[in-house]
Amino acid sequence: MTPLSRSTPSDASDEASKGAIRQANEALILAAAERVFAGAGFGGTTMAAIAEAAGLPKANLHYYFGNKQELYRTVLARTLKDWLLPTHGITPQADPRAAIERYIRDKMALSEQRPHASKVFANELLHGAPIVKALLATELREMVLAKAAVIDGWIAAGRMAPVDPVHLFFTIWAATQTYADFDVQVRAVLGLQELSAPDHARATEHVVALILRGCGLSV
């Protein structure tokens, strides 16, 4: 009788190592793809350019993502997922001021840390959202309507001033993403070559205070 094969600690260690390598390579590729797509657009981007930016062989990109369309779609989906994650704090039991402030700060941090991702997403929308239109009409819409209902509940309970909750999200997106999508304009007006950490902090405090006051919440 042939004995049953059994995994060993060494096998498990090898699998964990391979998983860590895959995760690291995928993160490296996605970060490079954000930069290249942001600069050249989808049409002007090649897998070779992304591979060079990632410092990996081109074959690695095709191994992990197949083709440029799949990689582009993954960049967009990851960006939307990361933008939606901070809304988890907007719950009926949460303090409106704390929840809205946390959401704004998280969105501002994403604009500072991942500006290229924001630019790729903005460019997709400017071209009619051919890739993410379905996600916008389903996942994004469902999230906004669910969180808008929470905000309506806060308003009904007298916990914040009456505002249009759906348009509040539009306002937050516009105010936070402008520091990534239109950083050239921001830097030109401020007379800066680059936005430093203190510059981003100043902008964050302004956006937080402006929106909280508009919601009738203390600053």
Question: How would you characterize this protein structure?
Answer:
This protein folds into 2 domains: 11-66, Orthogonal Bundle (Arc Repressor Mutant, subunit A), CATH 1.10.10; 69-214, Tetracycline Repressor, domain 2, CATH 1.10.357.10. Helix content is 76%, strand content 0%. The protein has helices at 9-44, 47-54, 58-65, 68-84, 96-113, 115-126, 133-156, 165-181, 183-190, 197-214. Helix 1 (9-44) crosses helix 6 (115-126). It is globular and about 60 Å long.
List the helices and strands and how they pair.
Layout: H1 9-44, H2 47-54, H3 58-65, H4 68-84, H5 96-113, H6 115-126, H7 133-156, H8 165-181, H9 183-190, H10 197-214
What is the tally of helical segments?
10
CATH class of the largest domain: Mainly Alpha
Oligomeric nature of the chains: single chain
What do we call the CATH topology of the largest domain?
A: Tetracycline Repressor, domain 2
Q: Give the overall shape.
A: globular
Number of strands: 0
Structurally, the number of domains stands at 2
* Secondary-structure element pattern, one letter each: HHHHHHHHHH
Q: Low-confidence runs (pLDDT<50, min 5 residues)? A: none
The name of the CATH architecture of the largest domain is Orthogonal Bundle
Proportion of residues in helical segments? over 70%
- Beta-strand fraction estimate: under 5%
State the CATH superfamily name of the largest domain: Tetracycline Repressor, domain 2
Q: Report the average pLDDT across residues.
A: 93
Major β-sheet, in short? Answer: none
CA(first)-CA(last) distance: 75 Å
Structural class: mainly alpha
